TrEMBL record:
This is SpoVT-AbrB domain-containing protein. It comes from the Bacteria. InterPro entries: MraZ_N, MraZ_sf, SpoVT-AbrB_sf.
């Protein structure tokens, strides 16, 4: 399938070109001559709007986790799944590492052609974050890390 076998990690600052394409870090790119289908999901991470690019396997795992959540009534679970499908679209990451963000989606999330976009690795996914939301997101993540430092012992 061409998806990098390693975890998608780190933060990268890039720009959208005039066709709303963004280049991802080399380590995240598929093998030469291959492309990868991803799901681009309108999402909120820590209540901050992001576009989450995820493999189809990661997307299906999300849908499965919704479907099997016994704490939520079946009708609500179905509505949640439908909403997630409705907020996502299939996109292609080509072998040059370019991902095209649909223009309207990009504009809805505060991205501009030729403007900055921040990429944050999330393991089996990565987030595209607008400059307007990046500092808020990073601050919330720093707060989470502060509480984690006290609870993890590498000893």
């Amino acid at each position: 399938m061409g998806v990098p076998s390693q975890s998608l990690e780190g933060v990268a600052d890039h720009k959208l070109d005039t066709k709303y394409r963004v280049a991802v870090p080399a380590a995240w790119r598929p093998a030469s001559g291959q492309s990868v289908q991803l799901r681009l999901l309108r999402w909120k991470h820590l209540k901050v709007p992001v576009l989450r690019a995820m493999t189809h396997e990661a997307f299906e795992a999300l849908i499965e986790s919704i479907a099997t959540n016994g704490d939520v009534p079946t009708g609500i679970r179905n509505a949640q799944k439908q909403a997630v499908y409705g907020e996502s679209t299939s996109v292609t990451l080509n072998d040059q590492g370019k991902l095209t963000v649909p223009k309207r989606t990009a504009e809805d999330f505060g991205f501009e052609a030729g403007g900055a976009v921040h990429l944050i690795g999330r393991g089996r996914a990565f987030d595209l974050v607008s400059p307007a939301h990046m500092e808020e997101l990073r601050e919330k993540e720093r707060e989470i890390l502060e509480s984690l430092y006290d609870s993890v012992d590498f000893g």
